[in-house]
Amino acid sequence: CRWRAAGKRAFNENQIHIFTEDYLFEKMSQLIGNTIGEDLQSRSLQIHEKFSVLQNLISFDMLDIPESLQIPSIFSLLQSEILKISQVNGPKNKLIIISMCIENLISFFEASLESKPTCDDLFPLITYLILLSNPPQFLLQVDFINKFLPKDLLKGEYGYMLASVQAAIKFLDNLDGNSLNQGFLKINERKKEERI
Fold this sequence. Notes:
The chain has eight helices and no strands. By secondary structure, it is mostly helical. It starts with a helix and ends with a helix.
């Protein structure tokens, strides 16, 4: 009974902390918005527009996602979750949304392939999820987390997840016509080999 009460108190304290953080960042959002340069806002809009175009060009196959993981309904579900990042104000809450999506990708991988994913296994899944969902001002959201989240929370698992998201954004942003052509050629070669 004593443990249950302690757990309940810790849960309530955590809820209060999250609510307080969200409330404070909501009230401070105008000030924080002014600290973000126009360059970053413009860059975030450019990336959002580029990802909108890439959504029509990039497939599961181009990212080497195994066929058993090519289940659009799973990605659609996670897409609706990651889009919630714009609905919360605090950096910790934004990172929690990202980490929950990645944890769900890990669970999905483990259930589908009956093994634990490596970083190399997760990267294409994270990349595809970000591309598919294309949250508005996602670059700003990630920058906001980096600037305002206590640095001790950027270590370990949370740090890995945020770094993976940043790497996926950079990867997609660096795609150009040549790399897309190479991706299409690679898929065509693979299909030819499968026919033989």
